[in-house]
Task: inverse folding
């Protein structure tokens, strides 16, 4: 569980101060997939950093339900000097949990999601979509209870993006993880989430929250539902575009 | 849930490799062209060297130039023979090589360590920046008299000279390599809760390895400048000493011979580092 309670965050630079987030309140329940969307530059990355505890809020409180969290970024940030397998072990090494059992679990996870033949390869030999899948498995290797996703698909071309999007969602659902996704892509948010939180332009506040329940839960099916375009229109209006 | 379908764009590109042997005619022609290009380059390189040496020798033989002043390839060979006979050649080479390698090693290790400390502390980097910049632009030979008075006239003085000539570049290049590391990767390390030491070991050091290799290449050239410069100022032996001594007593054969050997050694050392680089970048 993750709870933002009246969070305000202000950036300080020599040129002045900028309030990126103001009185922000929303909740991510256990097992929920929540997307936060907003116009670009509205402080989405700040929200993710606040959620992950990399930044401390100026006021308000971020309540975490305990447990570990994993972070998945816009670019995969795979280390080219390590093999795919070694990349997946990285969080175990950093968190000093590099035991044979944990490594075995990580390898099992990678094999389960189609990376068996790639484990010994260099990330440079993989396609963009495959690299993002490795990045997700790396995030999952440390067995986080919650995932923070920072526009993890925006660096991919459109076709790859649709596939990786479905891919990531099914892995996250399959592993029963809680997830918080920040994105500026409306259709991505609708296709993936149980709940969408719409933000205003900077300073970011919550404009609306939508529970999304149509379709059978898979992003692909959901995109084909008639409700999809209706929801899209509503969100588009709320974003003011 | 079992294996998912492969992500888009992940097609295996069929590529014939060397083991196949049944290339198309077009590919064979391409391979031949590439090989010919390589041969032309190697042969041209050798020809240029032979031409320079040949013209030099010829001009000296027909007295077009005065071999007393310009020396000649045959005289260089003879001088090398003499130096081997009286047993001093390898002594001088050993001294200069030892000074250079010692100075180079100290400069690289110390420079890299200082770069690590500067990377670890943002304020230390900002505070020390102007000092490093000034030290970098200072002609180190200006410190010659001070070095002699402070350290003396032995090998240590020359090694010290080698270190101060090459260390600043080691610090600056290594640091630039550390700073150039991808910010997304740094954010990833931070999100996993990695501290400075872990980030340094797992990310910064391996990521900046190409920069380190580059640093080694630049530093090896500077180390040679340092050791020969040191020998010019103060020395009783070494190739730099031979050059200065030869100049003073007008034995230009000796000057040319020492210079020639220096070329070989410097080239060799650079070559070794290039091989190490290739090994690491594989």
Result:
């Amino acid at each position: 569980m993750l709870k933002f309670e009246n969070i305000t965050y202000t950036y300080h630079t020599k040129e002045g101060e900028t309030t990126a987030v103001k009185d922000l309140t929303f909740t991510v329940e256990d097992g929920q997939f929540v997307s936060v969307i907003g116009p670009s530059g509205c402080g989405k990355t700040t929200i993710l950093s606040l959620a992950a505890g990399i930044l401390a809020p100026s006021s308000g409180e971020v309540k975490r339900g305990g447990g570990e969290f994993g972070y998945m970024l816009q670019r995969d940030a795979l280390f080219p000097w390590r093999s795919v397998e070694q990349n997946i072990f990285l969080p175990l090494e950093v968190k000093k949990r590099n035991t044979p059992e944990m490594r075995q679990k990580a390898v099992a996870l990678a094999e389960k999601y189609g990376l068996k033949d790639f484990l010994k390869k260099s990330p440079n030999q993989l396609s963009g979509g495959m690299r993002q899948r490795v990045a997700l498995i790396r995030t999952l290797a440390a067995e986080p209870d919650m995932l923070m996703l920072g526009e993890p698909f925006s660096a991919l071309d459109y076709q790859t993006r649709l596939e990786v999007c479905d891919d990531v969602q099914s892995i996250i659902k399959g592993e029963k993880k809680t997830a918080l996704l920040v994105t500026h892509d409306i259709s991505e948010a609708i296709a993936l989430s149980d709940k969408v939180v719409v933000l205003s332009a900077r300073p970011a506040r919550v404009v609306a929250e939508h529970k999304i329940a149509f379709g059978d839960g898979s992003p692909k099916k959901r995109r084909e539902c008639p409700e999809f375009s209706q929801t899209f229109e509503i969100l588009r209006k709320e974003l003011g575009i | 849930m079992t294996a998912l379908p492969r992500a888009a764009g992940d097609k295996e590109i069929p590529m014939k490799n060397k083991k196949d042997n049944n290339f198309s005619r077009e590919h064979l022609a391409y391979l031949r062209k590439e090989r010919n290009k390589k041969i032309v380059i190697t042969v041209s390189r050798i020809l240029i060297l032979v031409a320079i040496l040949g013209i030099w020798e010829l001009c000296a033989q027909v007295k077009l130039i005065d071999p007393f002043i310009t020396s000649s390839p045959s005289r260089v060979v003879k001088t090398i023979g003499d130096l081997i006979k009286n047993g001093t050649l390898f002594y001088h080479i050993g001294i200069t090589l030892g000074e250079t390698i010692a100075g180079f090693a100290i400069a690289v290790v110390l420079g890299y360590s200082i770069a690590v400390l500067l990377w670890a502390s943002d304020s230390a980097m900002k505070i020390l920046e102007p000092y490093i910049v000034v030290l970098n632009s200072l002609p180190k030979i200006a410190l010659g008299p001070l070095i002699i008075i402070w350290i003396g006239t032995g090998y240590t003085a020359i090694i010290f000279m080698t270190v101060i000539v090459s260390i600043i570049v080691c610090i600056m290049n290594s640091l630039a390599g550390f700073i150039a590391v991808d910010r997304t990767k740094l954010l990833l390390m931070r999100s996993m809760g990695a501290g400075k030491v872990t980030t340094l070991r797992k990310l910064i050091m391996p990521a900046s390895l190409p920069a380190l290799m580059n640093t080694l290449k630049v530093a090896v050239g500077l180390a040679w400048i340092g050791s020969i410069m040191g020998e010019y100022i103060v020395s009783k032996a070494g190739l730099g000493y031979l050059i200065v001594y030869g100049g003073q007593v007008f034995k230009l054969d000796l000057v040319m011979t020492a210079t020639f050997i220096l070329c070989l050694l410097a080239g060799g050392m650079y070559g070794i580092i290039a091989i190490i680089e290739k090994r690491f970048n594989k």
